[in-house]
Amino acid sequence: MTAAAAAAPVAPAVLAAIGLAACRVAGVATFAPVVAAASVPVRVRVGLSAVIAVAALPAITGAGIPDAAVAEPWRLLPAAAMEFALGAVIGVLAMLPVAAFRTAGTLVGAQAGIGFGQLYDSGSDPAEGEGDPLGQLLALLGAACFVWAGGLDAVALSALRSFDYVSLGAWMPDRGVLATVGGAMLASSELAFRVALPVTAVLVAESMVSGLVSRAVPGFGPLAFGFPLRVAVALLALLAGAAAMQSAMDGAIGGMLDSMHALAAGGAA
Known about the structure:
- By secondary structure, the protein is an all-alpha fold.
- It has one domain (9-267).
- It is 77% helix and 0% strand.
- The protein has helices at residues 2-7, 12-31, 42-55, 57-60, 67-71, 77-112, 117-120, 133-148, 151-165, 175-216, 222-240, 242-267.
- α9 (151-165) packs parallel to α12.
- The chain is elongated and about 85 Å long.
- The relative contact order is 0.14.
- Residues 1-8 have low confidence and may be disordered.
């Protein structure tokens, strides 16, 4: 009896529910930090989406998928698109704290003089790894802080919990979605300035000291010594503020979870 039950085929309705759930998780994996990196193969993201969708099976077995849609799967395409859109918004909310760190690195790079090359090299694409070096460094640091603070676990659990709030095919975006995303973007902008402003203040102090030294010592070449000094000061300031950055990321992840909860609860039908 047990072997026969194990060999029984999976009901089409269950397969349809898993497919829709996988679309939602795939939207998260498309934009979430670390998982959406170009170095992560697409097949790994697809496999991860399928695994999380199967793990959410107890929450989605009661989804009221019409029999006509199960018999004709093409009818599920609009629902699959909405599921992917919901997952994409969750992924974007998760990505914002790491993006804030990259923005902070770009601001620091401009203050240190490293980012001036981007003003003249219009062909460089940060998405291809040719952006500001400090921006890339802060992006890596932000991703490391995100992982260290449990951000990946939080995103995976949020994707699973979203099925408790929003049934499959029942998400109805409204103006509350724009308000939630807009609030998260403002919070990420604040995080970027919180990370960049202390380093900027140190660089301003270094500029004042270098200016005084160049006036007091006529043979001192500000162009020869100033630029390497500014870069070294910027890197040391970033290193000294690593603990504060980790604390800021912890708070950002808490705000990210609140935004995800508001998004799911506000869009539940």
